[in-house]
């Protein structure tokens, strides 16, 4: 694949990194993310704790995170464009 085609395919996307610190009593679905223009909510499972979840989204879209109060301070989000 030529470099020109590769750039046009991937230039319109950003990579979001979501990390949830490990915690006892974490329940599946306590942290949920949504993306503008995409129907549905995406819950993070217990296995995501302490790991980095990579989400590819259009650069113009926003990522929204809903979390239970006790987990809101334990979430780190980084966007790479």
Molecular structure report:
- This protein is mostly beta strands and 81 residues long.
- It contains one helix and six strands.
- The protein has one helix spanning 3-10, and strands spanning 13-20, 31-35, 42-43, 52-58, 63-67, 75-80.
- A three-stranded antiparallel sheet has the order 4-1-6, with no helix packed on it. A three-stranded antiparallel sheet has the order 3-2-5, with no helix packed on it.
- It is globular and about 40 Å long.
- The two termini are 22 Å apart.
- The model has no long low-confidence stretch (mean pLDDT 86).
> What's the main sheet like?
3 strands, antiparallel
- SSE succession: HEEEEEE
* Strand runs, count: 6
Number of helices: 1
Largest sheet strand order = 4-1-6
Shape: globular
Distance between the termini: 22 Å
The helix-and-strand class reads mainly beta
The helix content, as a percent range, equals under 10%
Give the strand content: 35-45%
Q: Radius of gyration in whole Å, from Cα?
A: 15 Å
Q: For the residues shown, what is the average pLDDT? A: 86
Given as residue ranges, the uncertain stretches (5+ residues, pLDDT < 50) are: none
